[in-house]
Amino acid sequence: MKNKSWIIILIMGIALAISLAYSVWVSQKTSNAGESTVTTTSIIEMTATTVTIKNTLTGTGNVEYREKQEGETQNLENSQVTQEQENNQTENDEVEENIEKAYQITLSIEDKDLAKAKTGQEVEISIKKEEETLSYLGRVTQISQNTNNKSTLNIEVTNPDEKIEENLTATCTVIIEKAENVVALPIEAIQKNDENQEFVDVVQADGTTKPVTIETGISDDYYVEITSGLNVGDRVQIVKSTTTVVNENKNETSEK
What we know:
Order of helices and strands: HEEHHEEEEEEEEEEEE
Strand content: over 45%
Number of helices: 3
């Protein structure tokens, strides 16, 4: 008798599971019945232009004062003698005024970016002091690799003035590579063919387009340098397709 009771309970459980699964299937089918997909195609035109592209590393650090080494001071003095022979006295006075000022910033970077950094690279420095934003130039003087997945760059401020102080927070942009006044296009304009060659669809005089193979150089977050294949003013086109799901029951449109 007990065995029969367990069999009845088991059968009832299976029947309940089947019923729930069927209800979910019917609900989804009813919901999807009012949906349809719509694909829209748009043509976007861009023009090759002249820009300056910078590939950079950015980080923050505190301004520190450091004493110049004797060798550094001697080098500056020797440099000053040369400048006296080539430049006027006013320029020499400015060098002499700044000769003892030495400020540096220690910048932390990820180890994955370590290979990009090299001593001597230019640095753009921005410091917020009260209500004023101070701008300076610098250069990477030392690279140190740590063991905690963080490395550091020592950056020397090359044009300090009387406004710079210790313990101010500096935002540093290290110029990894730079291409000035080069022909460029937005990155999204660049396509690749089956041979993995880069090309763009150039707009012809009659309005039609022609694929043109190009060569590219450095890029940033928006532009890519075009080293051959295009001239300033050339127009290119890209085709973009957008698929949306329209829920007719709720009168809503969502983009996929």
